[in-house]
Specification:
It is a single chain. The protein is an alpha/beta fold. The protein has one domain (2-226): Spore Coat Polysaccharide Biosynthesis Protein SpsA, Chain A (Alpha-Beta Complex), CATH 3.90.550.10. It is built from 8 helices and 13 strands. The chain has a 7-stranded mixed sheet, with helices on both faces. A two-stranded antiparallel ribbon has the order 2-3. Strand 4 (55-60), helix 3 and strand 5 form a beta-alpha-beta unit. The longest helix has 11 residues, at 40-50. It is globular.
């Protein structure tokens, strides 16, 4: 299992503009905003490394040049970082960004994490029970998404029909085939999710630990206050 984790690529999705975080993101990409002594994305890198992963791909667009300057090649975290730069085309959204990054991703399946979330989730759990095609990590609905996204059946499949739905956490594991046939360019994930649900091919699992979507300055400040005490 250790070698399987070490050989699995983790993609950190960091290309978004972070418009809801303005004015903070006018001069700093959202994943490089700090909580304590480290940026949001650094907290991910440290956790990913501690869990045994070795290779990370980061897709970047908004203020893209700041990421290599801040994070380097990953050596300081015990990782190798490759950058998938979308700054020339503009952010390609999640599906388009993953299509663009496929040649840098060295494993199949691979894990993706939104760089602007905060969680204590053990990402290696996704390797222990890999999906046939795709599996999303779901959470209880936060205040900003009370209706949720998808239902989770007893058999572990996601659906659009359940009365009680959960929210997609921004953490997932995919096989490359989900994206290989896509055209290059800007593409969202939602249509892919709905297609997979129609094919009974989108699996889910529920995160029981800490999770927060750092989508607004207020939520960032709440997180900073919560973690202000020394580790």
């Amino acid at each position: 299992m250790d070698s399987l984790i070490a050989n699995t690529t983790v993609v950190l999705l960091a290309a978004g503009h972070g418009k809801r975080m303005l004015p903070l993101t006018k001069s700093t990409p959202k994943p490089l905003l700090t909580v304590g002594q480290h940026s949001l994305i650094e907290h991910h890198l440290k956790r990913i490394s501690a869990q045994g992963f070795k290779h990370v791909v980061i897709n970047i667009a908004h203020l893209a040049e700041q990421f290599p300057t801040a994070l380097g090649d990953g050596q300081q975290y015990g990782l190798r970082i490759d950058y998938s730069d979308e700054s020339q085309t503009g952010a390609l959204e999640t599906a388009g960004g993953l299509k663009n990054a496929l040649t840098l991703i060295k494993s199949d399946p691979f894990i993706t994490i939104n760089a602007d979330i905060w969680t204590d989730y053990d990402f290696s759990n996704l390797i222990k029970q890999p999906p046939q095609l795709a599996k999303l990590v779901m959470v209880d609905n936060p205040e900003h998404n009370p209706e949720g996204d998808f239902g989770l059946s007893d058999t572990g499949l996601l659906n659009n029909t359940a009365n009680e739905k959960l929210t997609f956490s921004g953490i997932a594991i995919y096989h490359k085939t989900v994206f290989e046939k896509l055209e290059h360019g800007k593409q969202a994930l939602a249509p892919i999710f709905h297609r997979l649900i129609d094919e009974n091919a989108l699996q889910g699992t529920k995160l029981m630990g800490e999770w927060q979507d750092i989508g607004t300055p207020e939520r960032l400040e709440e997180l900073r206050l919560k973690h202000a005490r020394p580790n």
